[in-house]
């Protein structure tokens, strides 16, 4: 419960920091809360094993490097690196998330609209490969 709260607040602060033109303080707090919340949700050992698997080292480098760059004070560059690293780290989960969202009444309708449907199919094809 605490981990989900920390992760939720982390995502909120990251989103709010991006809305407010990449505010350094909000993004830094969001990053710390997100990583701490993830550690609370799945445990420290499993978090370490997830991030430091041999085939995920590039993605982990981009993600944690982006966090470090945001903490240093370059929020735009750091967030670009973080987003790329996040995509590489969690690309295996995207088809599951898209499949779940397709079953939600209003969101499923939106995902099946012509332009969005083709994007979600491309996303599914690139992550499944």
From TrEMBL:
The keyword Coiled coil does not apply. GO terms for cellular component: cytosol; endoplasmic reticulum; Golgi membrane. It is found in: Golgi apparatus membrane. GO terms for biological process: endoplasmic reticulum to Golgi vesicle-mediated transport; retrograde transport, endosome to Golgi. The keyword Glycoprotein does not apply. InterPro entries: Got1, Vesicle_transpt_Got1/SFT2. It is a multi-pass membrane protein. Its main location: Golgi. It comes from the Eukaryota. Belongs to the GOT1 family. PANTHER family: CGI-141-RELATED/LIPASE CONTAINING PROTEIN, VESICLE TRANSPORT PROTEIN GOT1B. This is GOT1B protein. The lineage of its organism: Eukaryota, Metazoa, Chordata, Craniata, Vertebrata. The gene is Golt1b.
